[in-house]
Structure formats: C-alpha cells, structure tokens
Amino acid sequence: MSERSNRAPKETVWFITGCSTGIGKWLSSTAYEAGHFVVATSRDTSKLTHLPSDVPAVLKLQLDVNSPVSISKCIEATLDHFGCIDVLVNNAGYGLFGDTEGVHDHLAREAFETNFWGPVSLTKEMVRVFRDVNPKGRGGAVIQISSFGGWIGYPGGAFYYASKFALEGFTESISREMHPDWNIKFLILEPGGVQTEFAGSNLVLSDRHPAYLDPRCPYNEISALLSSSDLKSTAWADAKDTAKVVFDLVEHRDIRPWPLRLPLGSDAVKLIQKDISNFENDMAKWAIEIRQTPKKKQQDSEEYQQWTTTLSRLSGHND
Q1: What confidence tens digit (pLDDT) does each residue in 40-88 have?
Q2: What share of the chain is helix, strand, coil (3-state, %, to 5)?
Q3: Cα dist. 61→19, 81, 150, 222 in Å?
C-alpha cells in the first residue's frame, strides 16, 4: 500500500493527533484492533509503542501541530501510504492554568498555537483532502476533542478555556460552510474528567500572582483539585472507555447522524445542563431589557425577517 491510488481502502483510515497518551493512545489502539487503518501521530514517535511498527495498517508519523510544514508532510505521507483519509481526530493539546494576571503572554500564545491554530490548520487541510482527493462522495469526518471547558469557563483556566471556546466557534462555523455533496461531517466532543495526562505532563501551571493567594479567591479551589492524586484515579473516566465511545460514534455515523456538539461523561452533561439552565433563567429575568431592541418597526421589516430566517436556517446541525 505504498503507492497512491484512486482505489481507496474499504476500511476507515484514521488520522489521529496526540497518540502517545490518553484518548489518542487508546483510540488508535481500538481502531487498529478493529481492523481499520491508523495514522498515529506524536511529537515523539518512540512513544507509540502500543502500536506495531511492521504492519501496513499502521503509519506512525512525527507531527508538530504548530508547524504547517509538518502538517503538510504528514498528510502527504498518509496519502502516499493509504490513498485517502476518512477521519481526522484533533486530539493533541494541553492545559494551561494559573491566575490570569500571572500567566505570561508567551505561555498563553503557545497554548493557542497548539489547542486552536494546530487543529484549525489540520482541519482546513483535511477538508481539502475529503473534497478533492478522496473518491467523490466518500467525504470524511472531523472530530474535535474539546472539553466541557469549551462550553463553560472556570477560574484559573482563562486561556485554556478560551482556546477551546475558539475551537468550538471555528468548528461550528466551518461545519456550516460545507456543500452537501462533499459529505463532510463535524463533531465537537466535550469530555468531562478523563484519566489522561491533562493533570500531569500535559498541564502547564504558571507562577502564582500574589494578589490571588487569598483563600477566598476561587482559583485556589481549582488548584487544590488539580493537585489531588485521588481526583484523576477515583473520579475521572477511564481513557480507554472514552476512546471506545469515540470509536463507536465513528462506526455508527451513517446510522445515527451526529449532533454538532456532544458532551462525554455524566460530569460534563451535569455541568453543561446546569449552565444552560442558568442561561435560560437569566434570559427570563432580563426579558424586558433583551427585547427593547431592535424597535418593532425594524422587527416588522422584510429585511429583518430575511436576516433572522436565514441565520436560523443556517444554524442547523450536520443533517
């Protein structure tokens, strides 16, 4: 399978970032064991020992998601090896926590490069592959591993959560730009706590700002939770189980059309539902102020009706 060909394999070709640990590690293993083709990427391919190196169904590639050149090389190597790509899973990323005033700008920008701009670059390249390289109509799927923190922001994670909010906004918009004939689907997954290296090697903690050391400052509660060794091992979901859910979603995507967003984990669902309830309560409480603009004359205009009707129609999901 070393020459590029118009004959695409029947099995799904997965391109997964961040495969050395956590969800990426288990998802790449699950897909391979199910008989699919796997492109497992990491900054350090020596950490991909959970996958065999001598089988044509597995391609291990060194990828720096912050480098457009690295992205292009990996996609070309994948197409040379498999001929097409069916699923992109943007999983690579890391946490950045600290008092917002105390986080140096370069740390915040680096987090955005990895958590936002990396997935953006990969997504744009993969849309081209799905549309122009894959056999006509085969299309493809983009899965963004976001977080419940892509819906709700908590103390101490301003830049991490902002990167996830940005990724979700980008994905929501680009998903609605697709021509139906391209058959390109998008799914934003919002996991709750998962036993990955998020609270370990994939977490950057900035220096504390002295103004926020008072115990009454809310980030101190989050900081204590993240430093608890029992939290991840006792309360968070198993990464293998989470990866299996992701795999099943892809396997059954033609039977059960995806929503745009899908929380993963009872903790994520509980927190997001609570946030929605709070938002609805605020909308009801401030209904008079909310509806003061635009004036009724404007609301009755043909242009206003066209504006709201068009946006409402275009805000539909993947179906």
Answers
A1: 999 999 999 999 999 999 999 999 999 999 999 999 999 999 999 999 9
A2: 50, 15, 35
A3: 10, 12, 28, 36
Strand 87-90 vs strand 58-62: parallel, antiparallel, or unpaired? unpaired
Active-site amino acid positions: 146, 160, 164
CB distance 204 to 96 below 8 Å: yes
**H/E element holding 40?**
strand 37-42
- Asked whether 263 and 149 are in contact (CB, 8 A), the reply is no
Closest CA to 202 of 15, 18, 68: 18
Other CB atoms within 10 Å distance of the CB of residue 56: 10
| DSSP class of 212 | G
Q: How far is CA 105 from CA 98, 148, 162, 238, in A?
A: 12, 24, 14, 33
Exposure string for 102-111, b = 16+ CB within 10 A, e = fewer: bbeeebbebb
Cis bond before residue 180 (omega within 30° of 0):
no
Count other Cβ atoms within 10 Å, centred on residue 124: 13
Rounded Cα distance between 304 and 278, Å, is 29
pLDDT higher than 70, residue 319? no
What does pTM read for this prediction?
Answer: 0.92
